[in-house]
Amino acid sequence: MSTLYPSVLLVALGSAEEQAQCRTLRVRDEQSDFIATNAESLEQAADSPWCEPLGVRAVHTGEMVGFLMHALDPDENSRWIYRLMIDHRYQGRGYGRAALRALLEHLQKMPGGPGVALGVAPENTGARRLYACEGFVETGELIDGELIMRRLLA
Question: What is the pLDDT of residue 31?
């Protein structure tokens, strides 16, 4: 039996209205130590030509349910997922998995090497489980206290 996940659309955050909408999204209180705020992430993206911030919209409602950001690491020619967050009101409904899958599909079309990496807080077991189920493998590396996970895009 296959599990159905909601359809999501990744959207560029080009307008001030979309960015303001993104800034209102929040994770649950107990998750706030695991990820930077969306406002901080948007500031980081504005300062880096390598970062692409994207909103995650539910296809059936058009409502913004999450935020993600990725970047090309020119030194290692691979993509990094810097942020993946789903607003607390939409967690547990499959939006995180759907957003991750949509992002991986998006990254396959972009220049850069065949790999993608991310960092995750060791105590964020839910995220680690999600990433592992989607083919990411813990490498044993630690960067700024985060476990590094990698997978091939193909």
Answer: 87
